[in-house]
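Limitations

Structures in this collection are predictions, not experimental determinations, and the ligand pose is part of the prediction. Treat each record accordingly. The example that follows, with pyridoxal-5'-phosphate as the small molecule, is included so readers can see exactly what is and is not provided: the inputs are given verbatim, and the output is the predicted complex.
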Amino acid sequence: MVVKQAVWLPGSVKEGEVNMDHIHRWEKIKDRIKKACYRVGRDPNDVNVVVVTKYIGSDQIRCFFDLGLNHVGESRVKDAVAKWQDLYGQGIWHFIGSLQRRKVKEVIGRFTYLHSLDRYALASEIDKYLKQEGGTLRCFIQVNVSGEKTKHGIFPNELKEFVQEIANLSTIEVVGLMTIAPIVDKEKETRCVFRQLKQLQQQLQPLNLPRLSVRHLSMGMSQDFEVAIEEGATWIRLGSVLVGKG
Ligand SMILES: *Cc1c(COP(=O)(O)O)cnc(C)c1O
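Predicted complex:
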């Protein structure tokens, strides 16, 4: 009888084993977050991290859970659902990519947050499903601050109207605004985009609409998270700098 032996692949990480690279990267990032906060007199506890896991598989995601990083962000429905199933019952899931209406039903019940609410038709589809299934979805409205044609998002001058339009959808909880800064080396431009998102938040807050808290700002990625924190980010979405890929 042939007994199959487990093969140990050199360099492979055992399931759930905390990888030293992850620990080191996270320690360094924590330090950078703290320093950015202290520069502007903010409390580092007010900055939440979404680990963007689109570059890594389920086993590696477990390593981040072991480090206490429970919020994971995915941008593609198919990949996200597979990982969500592998890691059933673990983590708090954020959908951060552009979402098609026909894929809404896959996101409902799995994801707690949506960072990319950018049109009424999408909001209304989400509302339809949630009214059947029960529950609410915490949404960030994605704003196209920089006005780039290739970017998704509501334009700043349409934001107020959009917020009023979706106010009648009782399952949509608007927790904040989200933006993606243009990929430029100029810190000044990036800062300007983040600052504008903060200003838009301040304009919405007095509207006093139901289920509209707009408490949060989801902005800042690997390239620009420190600038985003200085400008008021309460959620930063970190991929490559944290997972070491991309
Ligand atoms: C991929 C992605 C991120 C993370 O990007 P990194 O530059 O790898 O940190 C953040 N937000 C969104 C919407 C993304 O698609």
